[in-house]
Amino acid sequence: MEAYVKDTISKEEELVQAYMDEVFETIVKRDPHEKEFHQAVSTIFRSIKPALVKNPAYRNHNILERIVEPERLITFRVPWMDDNGTVQVNRGFRVQFNSAIGPYKGGLRFHPSVNTSIVKFLGFQQIFKNALTGQPIGGGKGGSDFDPKGKSDREIMRFCQSFMSELAQHIGKDIDVPAGDIGVGAKEIGYLFGQYKKMRNTFEAGVLTGKGLSYGGSLARKEATGYGTIYFVQEMLKDHGFDIAGKKVVISGSGNVSIYAMEKAIELGAKVIACSDSDGYIYDESGISLETVKQLKEVEKRRIHDYVEFHPNAHYQEGCTGIWSIACDIALPCATQNEIDAAAAQTLVNNGVKVVAEGANMPSTPEAIGIFLESNVLFGPAKAVNAGGVAVSSLEMGQNSSRMAWSFEKVDTKLQEIMTDIYQNCKEAAKEYNQPGNLIVGANIAGFIKVADAMIDLGVI
Ligand code: NDP
């Protein structure tokens, strides 16, 4: 009997592997240039395999073929006029990936690197991240190859208005609810919302999240991703008998996620010793002054190297990857995808890092993740760690539809509860599928099961 059971399991495993290989080959063949999307799919496939082995319904219903194909991918021309009166043209994108459990939800990224591969990798991961939050939101993502750097306010406004002129046809509070991401902060969301409102002649606050407080935004949304990152790290540490107080922390980037991760980490007694921007990084052994970073990056939009003007004992180094050679207890990549490669991961491990938690989306290469796991570093995957942003976005949608505004404390408390639940769900799923402690497997399986079950319930969609 035992031998029979074992044979059955290994046969099912073989079938699942063959099925996954076939689906993966199809997506590579269809869009061979979409490297980041392939990377995201292969990472998720690797971790959800045990769920497919355990429940053959996912294979029988061809869930994988369906889940890797966006419900809709919209690309559009974004013409706008620069300050010299010259017409410029950028490309706009929105991927409406999966709406099985709620309206599409996910940010807009304005960065020259944005293309279909980038929006698809982000949108694909967003499906599972959103499911993991426990909120009723599907997965989407979008953006443009427009570079806001060096543009005047008026240029940014004209660009946002043109972008929304097209996007407006595809979104709505029960259809698709975009938010910010790299290059899209409160200012851009304001211009986008203004144009939507004008076009529709309706104050539909729930159509965008990350809004300003004066027109329907939620308190604590700005802080949510960074704070949520630290709440998740706290859970990881607590579970292993440690505390964040007194730990040395290195955080890449100096944008929305990084700044509020720094703020919460410092508030809880950690010492943040380095941060960066896309030119280079600063190292301040006595602890980074968050006030200076905020003034430089949030208010004056300057470069991080200017920090040393105010703190001559700090050190500035050009280039981004060098930040990972600084010895620390906790490393938080909060800037961009693939910023930690195998060499950087090995250096972090050699220097004694205890925790790596991904504030950014897909900041570690698969090789880097392998090194962290082999070295028993506590590793928090992006899907779980940075889910606080979209979770509070969902709370913002709830406040908009009930026409209520919650206090900062109420949102922050709810955020903490959500991050604790996410950690517990990932941990439980990892344990249930015989990979205790592997939060990547836990996060992917917990998110996948929720969406896959809904897809089965909804028929062939
Ligand atoms: P921002 O645009 O506010 O900040 C990005 C920061 O990263 C900037 O400081 C930027 O520098 C820096 N940066 C960009 N590329 C590099 C690089 N190669 N090396 C080092 N630094 C770099 O974006 P967010 O903080 O909003 O987003 C950061 C990450 O977090 C992204 O992966 C995003 O998808 C993810 N995320 C964001 C959420 C949110 O709520 N904002 C929610 C969930 C995930 P510079 O100033 O030079 O541009």
Please characterize this protein's 3D structure.
The strands form two sheets. A seven-stranded mixed β-sheet has the order 9-8-7-6-10-11-12, with helices on both faces. It folds into three domains: 11-68; 72-202, 3-Layer(aba) Sandwich (Rossmann fold); 222-385, 3-Layer(aba) Sandwich (Rossmann fold), CATH 3.40.50.720. The relative contact order is 0.12. Strand 11, helix 13 and strand 12 (378-380) form a beta-alpha-beta unit. By secondary structure, the protein is of the alpha/beta class. The longest helix has 29 residues, at 2-30. It has helices at 2-30, 35-54, 57-60, 63-67, 116-132, 153-167, 186-200, 221-239, 256-267, 290-299, 307-310, 342-350, 366-374, 382-385, 388-402, 408-432, 439-457; strands at 72-81, 87-98, 104-110, 139-144, 176-179, 248-251, 271-276, 280-283, 315-318, 330-332, 355-357, 378-380. Helix 5 packs across helix 17 (439-457), helix 6 (153-167) crosses helix 7 (186-200) and helix 15 packs across helix 16. 50% of the residues lie in helices and 14% in strands.
